[in-house]
Amino acid sequence: MNPETKAKLMGVSVATLATALYKRGLRNQVIQGVQPLKGKGVNMVGPAFTLRYMPAREDRNQLVEFRNPEHPQRVAIEQCPEGHVMVIDSRKDARAASAGDILVTRLMMRGGAGIVTDGGFRDAATIAELDIPAYHTRPSSPTNLTHHEAIEINGPIGCGDAPVFPGDIVVGDDDCVIVIPAHLADEVADEAVEMTAFEDFVVERVKDGATIIGLYPATKEENLEAFAAWRAANGR
Amino acid sequence: MNPETKAKLMGVSVATLATALYKRGLRNQVIQGVQPLKGKGVNMVGPAFTLRYMPAREDRNQLVEFRNPEHPQRVAIEQCPEGHVMVIDSRKDARAASAGDILVTRLMMRGGAGIVTDGGFRDAATIAELDIPAYHTRPSSPTNLTHHEAIEINGPIGCGDAPVFPGDIVVGDDDCVIVIPAHLADEVADEAVEMTAFEDFVVERVKDGATIIGLYPATKEENLEAFAAWRAANGR
Amino acid sequence: MNPETKAKLMGVSVATLATALYKRGLRNQVIQGVQPLKGKGVNMVGPAFTLRYMPAREDRNQLVEFRNPEHPQRVAIEQCPEGHVMVIDSRKDARAASAGDILVTRLMMRGGAGIVTDGGFRDAATIAELDIPAYHTRPSSPTNLTHHEAIEINGPIGCGDAPVFPGDIVVGDDDCVIVIPAHLADEVADEAVEMTAFEDFVVERVKDGATIIGLYPATKEENLEAFAAWRAANGR
Amino acid sequence: MNPETKAKLMGVSVATLATALYKRGLRNQVIQGVQPLKGKGVNMVGPAFTLRYMPAREDRNQLVEFRNPEHPQRVAIEQCPEGHVMVIDSRKDARAASAGDILVTRLMMRGGAGIVTDGGFRDAATIAELDIPAYHTRPSSPTNLTHHEAIEINGPIGCGDAPVFPGDIVVGDDDCVIVIPAHLADEVADEAVEMTAFEDFVVERVKDGATIIGLYPATKEENLEAFAAWRAANGR
Amino acid sequence: MNPETKAKLMGVSVATLATALYKRGLRNQVIQGVQPLKGKGVNMVGPAFTLRYMPAREDRNQLVEFRNPEHPQRVAIEQCPEGHVMVIDSRKDARAASAGDILVTRLMMRGGAGIVTDGGFRDAATIAELDIPAYHTRPSSPTNLTHHEAIEINGPIGCGDAPVFPGDIVVGDDDCVIVIPAHLADEVADEAVEMTAFEDFVVERVKDGATIIGLYPATKEENLEAFAAWRAANGR
Amino acid sequence: MNPETKAKLMGVSVATLATALYKRGLRNQVIQGVQPLKGKGVNMVGPAFTLRYMPAREDRNQLVEFRNPEHPQRVAIEQCPEGHVMVIDSRKDARAASAGDILVTRLMMRGGAGIVTDGGFRDAATIAELDIPAYHTRPSSPTNLTHHEAIEINGPIGCGDAPVFPGDIVVGDDDCVIVIPAHLADEVADEAVEMTAFEDFVVERVKDGATIIGLYPATKEENLEAFAAWRAANGR
Question: What is d(CA A193, CA A197) in angstroms, rounded to the nearest whole number?
């Protein structure tokens, strides 16, 4: 992805991005119900590379299946391009794992930018300490075969009720994860940077005792002027 | 599909089939949570032809999309082969419709054997009266575009937590719908016919006052003998 | 149970009984989420005889288990005393059946007064036509072994979030099912008969155009007088 | 409300109305999860008159409260104007009733056009037979006091996740219920009548064997012409 | 509120308060499902000041609405009196935010004692670090307009299935939040202080190896005597 | 339990155990939805000692009941043998507590190895700091009497949808809790130790840059050889 866009998206919140997409009529781009295994204080940013699970049929999902070098779960990990975020459609079912620490470690080693499932990870306590951001709904120890069969790599999916297309830009912070349609990433990143400057200004004013009425949004002329001055003074 | 297998499956219950699959280690083949729009007293039987929905992104799902002759929802209806059951993965989300009466009527006219969604149909009261079996979770009037984007035709899907592969044999009765893996259809049909004969015999005995202990299953030799006699007498 | 109490309970609604128990501080006696397989227009009344399911462990719940003449599900059906209502704790899990038509037919033949589960029945369309009232949450074709192991006969259970003790009086109408603690059955039946007379009077008045203010409840003296006259006139 | 608008809305489906509102950017106007107590084959149409429940606090919700002539539940029934639909916000909680047959009968006698709750009605089997349409999620026998306190009459509410303002036009058919913002009722009614004519034409064509591609929507010129001819021939 | 009562409530647990209310027949005063954004080790105590959301209708909830100086969400923040706890009825829907860090910061600056929603906050990681207690169900980045319209300030509401009236005393600890009816606050605070002394004594004894039978509650005379001695010794 | 088995189970993860049971056809042994009150970094291991709750009936569950020295909740705490894990069936209902800090402290003093509920604990912040592992779904301050009646000690139960028999071996780590059927504990522990050695080897290789294909599982001969060498070198 565009490195400047990535840099911008590293510095804005998912909340701000959600508002920027809301302005464009997109209301369902936040992946609902997922949380970081551990807050890292740094954003996850990268294009989506997807994996889709369907419900497991027992005869097709014995442990021996993992011996197949073409098993889609393992192949997906090996194919996910550097800098991409793997997004897994687990049908919001965390009764069995979407992946475990070995696969997430491998993804990290290959330069993956992060991993998200609307199910759960096994070895979650270990994954939390890895140097790669990961988001799920809750820890889940059973092997994925118990309820999930990996069936498709890098197609369009749903994740936490959000639509995800390969190449969409995925951004996660310590609260949530959002999916920015690829063609909007640059303009949304620009706008979010602007919005963030304003929000930082507002927080500063509010901490100084200002009312939010007329300030957030800045419907009073004086606040617009103050913001302009603040930008100049703060180099933003 | 094999017409003899179809004939056999027309005469057995989903409950009996579920037990036959259970014997083979398959525990999740019933599509959970769906019901017939109207009990028809006749089974729905046919190979699965699938449609998958993903969550709708607003900019891709305006009404104008339906003007596209390649729109997958409409194309799926036109491609579903005669005698097949259309099975729709709506991610168990009935907040918007999976289809309405016009499309289901078209499917009926093309010889479709039935339609199943783990979401809901609009125009459900009308569909209920059509001469094609239909199963869903509840009526849902909003157009599918509201929450669903049709994204894939005839791939492997989940429906009501059951795995469905194109060509699997789908059977519905007035209670439930089950998915029989294609390679098991013939043997399961045979076994279910046998089981049904035995169950009919058991019901008759129970209505005559027999205890179920030793009869269901027939662990007492005398019951096996009585069943043999009953089969001879009833031509089954 | 007391035949006079039974006769009274045949003539009152679950709603009226719920209010009578509410007066006594009992707010959770309605079995939540169950419905009759078919409205019969006649109440189900009888003491509770219970069966408890726990989650099935696969090695203990193969089909062969049913060959055990001591299998609790089948034994419970054979032990349920005449006139009793079998109440099944299925942990509100309808993914597998609580029972099927053969067992319910046997219960009917043995004089059972009804059957209730907070799960689902298989062969539900058949059970609906039997001459015994049955209540569940939805049809469910998979054999009980899939998710349930029958573990205890006639102990205290929960059913649809209501507490049920063996011998409690269970009443079902076309809406709902309620559990009356055994020691309260006689007095609650008496009170419900009184309340029903009053409600019948009120309905008549309302259908004649009366306002409900001052009538329901009868805080206006004139309505109490009218009720007294109505009772005399109608022999109630 | 405008009698012509009402007449139009009597003749269109909720599904058609949902699409008309969808065109205007309104995606959440269908009251999710409710169903008619009995399909009447006739639409319910009328302006909304609302009642809001909050969770019951035990000390404020003893049976004696009903003796208060100002009790909001009963007052609401007596105030609901003729021709209006009472819409009740029960917080999607059907563990206790929203109302029972006496109140609904009174509403019917006063000329109410219908009643909707996102909870449940007690005496549901009786209400189903009354000459007033009623919609809920499931029967619920416990008195409303068990979990609900009626707290506000005719304010803005949520019902089944849909926003409802007093005076909005509520339409129900045998499938669902929809809420049309008051200021859009006339134009939406007009448009829905047009859409219904077209859908009726399409159904006729489909039953004659036509494909839906190019017909629904009518992207082929020949279908537009055929529709014009059909309208002329059928006086629509 | 009474400063002595506040001081007492700062020193007792929500669990103890729940038991004190249980004794008075109040069983539903704990706000279900909420958790502190960050455990502070100090109680939140203050009278409730409420805000109610209804489902958002798209035409009424565009971003421009925030420019309205009367927008109820922002007005509520500016009106919440010092020392009060803002309690928000978000209909248990965390798909969109109830508020974000700017508003919560403003509430903090104005002396608010805390904020609770049965939905979720955006900017949750930031709010967690503010010097004001906050409780929600999970982080939620989408702007409130996505699913919520602020409709009423300081009326009676439900929050997490608990009834909340303006002026009720709200207490939160690191586990849960409870709502004490205003008229009971003083007596419940007194009782909770007594109960806490006893519980502290019990914990000490249990850590010394005592059995709980006869001690908790103190049905053995010797334990009552020991408690009296302990109180004297510890100045409680 | 066998001390060697216990030692082995202290050193393996629940995820590994889940896979070992999966190989034996047991797919539902993880207690779904529970989490440690605080990650301890050390496993909980011990035989199950169970307690079952049923829904509370108000007249049987007043505070005075705790004065009964035979109250099953308190008796269970006093009877739980040293080294055992108390597992509580709370019907997945966390609206009221399963236990509080005093009882859990007592269990700790008596040498209990841990405590698990599929409901919630009150005083959770305090319990989290105790020297005994505890797992639940979320904090819950209301006294257990509000919704639960302790009804049976040390019988077979369900907990988080898993079957639990007294004496089954319960293992918890920072992610999840699993229930090993008693007769499988020794062999599963052995196998899990072996699996853990292999997984540790794999992680090391993956951190060195190895692909997972052919390594996990080790379908390539060279990886088996490398593992053998690794075992020798590392004394495992």
Answer: 6
